[in-house]
Specification:
It is a single chain. The protein is an alpha+beta fold. The protein is 20% helix and 40% strand. The chain has 1 helix and 3 strands; from the N terminus they run E-H-E-E. It has a 3-stranded antiparallel beta sheet, covered by helices on one side. The mean pLDDT is 90.
Length: 55
């Protein structure tokens, strides 16, 4: 199973601000299985949804 990146957020958000988590929560409220993951290489939070890989 793969994942599709919906949005990227820089890791240096202001204190008390969680834009990636807020965006993911909005997507989950719409019925999507959005998850936040950290991309250490780019120092960013990614909001991803699972995708089904075709054979």
């Amino acid at each position: 199973m793969g994942a599709k990146v919906l949005e990227r957020f820089p890791a240096g958000a202001p204190r008390g601000s969680w834009p990636a988590e807020e965006y993911a929560a909005e997507r989950r409220a719409r019925g999507e299985q959005a998850t936040v993951v950290m991309d250490l290489k780019s120092d960013a939070f990614l909001v991803v949804v699972p995708t089904r890989e075709e054979d």
